[in-house]
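ZP: hey, is the beta-D-mannopyranose complex queued? I don't see it on the tracker
AM: it wasn't, my bad. submitting now with these inputs:
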Amino acid sequence: MSITRSLTQDWFFTQVGGGRGTKNGEWLAVSQFPTTVHVELLKAERIPDPFLGLNEWEVQWVGESDWAFKNTFEVSAKELAAINVDLVFDGLDTFASVEFNGHKILDTNSQFIAYRAPVKQYLKLGANELVISFSSAFLKGRELEQAHGKLHLWNGDSSRLHVRKAQYNYGWDWGPVLMTIGPWKPIALHTYNVYLTDVDVRSDVSEALDVLVTVDLTLSEKATGGLASVTLKSAQDSVIPSESNIEVGSGSARAEFSFLPGALELWYPVGFGKQPLYTVEVTISDSEGNVLDTKTQRVSFRRVRVVQEPLVDQEGLTFLFEVNNIRIFCGGSNWIPADSFLTTLTPERYRAWLRLLVDGNQNMVRVWGGGIYEYDVFYDICDVLVWQDFMFGCGQYPAYDSFLKLVELEAEQNVKRLRHHPSIVIFAGNNEDYQLAESINIVDYSDETSDFRKTKFPARYIYERTLPSIVQKFCDIHYHRSSPYSAPGTVTTDKTLGDLHQWNVWHGSQEPWHNWDILAGRFVSEFGMEGYPNIRTVDYWLAGDKSERYPQSRVNNNHNKASGFERRLELYLVENFKHAFDMDSYVYYTQVMQAETLASAYRLWRRNWRGKGREHTAGALVWQINDCWPTTSWAIIDYFMRPKPAYFAISRELRQYTVGMTRKEKKIFANDLSAAQFTITTVLEVWGTNGTLSEKKAKLEVTCFDLHSSWTERFSKDIVLAPNSSTELYSGDLPGQPVRTKQSEVPRAIIVSARLLDASGTVLGRHSNWPEPFKFIKFPAIKDLGFSVKTSSDGESVELSAQKPIKGIILDAEGEDVEWSDQAIDLVPGDPQIVKAVGLKGRDAMARFLGDGTA
Ligand code: BMA
């Protein structure tokens, strides 16, 4: 019988040759297993916390030193008697040489590959010793770079391009340089006679939604004569009638089951249906009926297509995901590794992250190519769609033979590991490597046929030959050459094809966020805006150093890795806000700015989802949902899982029903000659979106306020929101705004509030549109606002109301943090809002808002 025993106890580590980490020959017990060196040194108080102050730079020697881990484990007589005994390493980071009882059994050189070494011949009864010696990946990488040549990249040290290791370890524009080292995944002793090397469950769900399931089994030996029993079970553990016993021929077997539509429950991403899970249970026995191995594989069934077809009214092709014949607007996030120290991540932390995603009304997450193929637990609990990159990012990667061999193995293993997860709907070859190639002019898009390995863009071989053939061979998931990628022969910035990274807000041409509508693409898989995290997170990294508590301080500069971040933050602030510059205010203003920027992207792009044949934009994935350490970045939730206000603003835009507005000025000249004679009218447009599959009758109510008088105007109308699309609801002059004939005529400060109400008066969606830029607004005196922030009697929510419109409310409370249900709130008279406040415990809430007297 095949038995796997995880070796989790009695691990020790040492710095090879001794040094700042341990004395020569000093072995420290590890605090957890799997683990990596920094984590252990920190626990043993041999290094300062690299997440505080400038400490990142105090620990750089760790990644340039060599380390060893050792383990002694007992072997029983039964284990010793097994026909085969292997040591299985799920993940070693990265260059390791492994000795077992004094014999060299393995050399490794990729963090992304699992290794197996036969050890039967060295196994002893009683104590056995395993020693894993790791050499510095940084130094090894530099050697490889010297041998094979320096290549171009964005982010990190160029030697990373030669090393199959999480690329963000080398430092990124949101992450510190922390070169982890050690056994980062489980290590096990595997005893067996014959075992199942592969259980490949494929399901073909037809357009009519009948399901054909095939289960292909492969054994470690080409044995014949045994029996394989294959059972399909539902989540409730009931056996689905299915063929069960099959003969094993030459080490493999195949079972096939087919089901009529409706016989199996299909998997849907959250928001569209349930996520039923099934299991395939496999038992292999020899000809005498002795069980050799068993395996349980979780599976789900769904039909997924990446639809790229002509649009009825625009150029190019759609780029959209269809699940079980439903076309889905993907509103979601990009995901980076959730920690610089991966082995500190727990299933609970993963669960909490993915809960935040779902609670934020998001339905897709992109596992970005500069991190890791995530742990199984991530995909196991993921109820949203997953866009999965291969782990290459922002680089001119090589494709020499030894490198390619590692890539092939990595791709095969990870495709096999991930393919059964129903959430994964696309594999992309890399992150931005074609973009990097375009930027240095090394891509020849007219060439689709050459081998590429001898060109300046050798990795086209990987992205256009190796990876697609591996994906095709081992799974049924769609393959896309890169993120972003338009189409063969077309630059990655084409907005009418494929996916798009729209960085012309922040990076690139630094457009105003108000231009998101003209910056749209068919599927925007990256775009972003920075914002400071919660002040508690800032105070955490300042670690009590009050002298550094100002936005431009050295420590704050080290906790923002984006080049030009001060210029860019300030550009977007100064163009739009009259703002203050003390630490707390800077946190506030950058957060409101981030929320405005990102919410308007989702608002405008969801409007572009206009129904079948008019899916002008089919997805928006913000860069980025999370952080790997406490820092200021584009993240919408910080390292400590404190959501920034932008998270809530996005979540409002991704509700089932939303209402959106734009206000645009139209200047018409009296004739072709005069520049002085013109009229400026202000046009208001209102639309609604409906993320459900049925049409929705509702009432649109539009109320206009003048910030400086008691004038208001209201109109309402019955409307019908078309299913699964946006619907235009109104276009006309902005009420209360006179036509202007001179540039010196200052427009009135009209605030428009739109709400969608159902028959019972429940608010389905609301949105306020304010005159912009906000910096021109003369806000009323605080005493005239009639602003009330009232803590409820149970102390766990607050009611907000006002007599004047108020923009950009961010709530907080003195002391311990509170879990707010909403932030970056706009308030208008007559429409009070209740915000849940878990952990407020009856305290008074404090509110910041535009015009709160700080600037
Ligand atoms: C994108 C990403 C990352 C980067 C981000 C912000 O291009 O793919 O490489 O962190 O931009 O610059």
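AM: back. The chain has a mean pLDDT of 97.
ZP: great, adding it to the tracker
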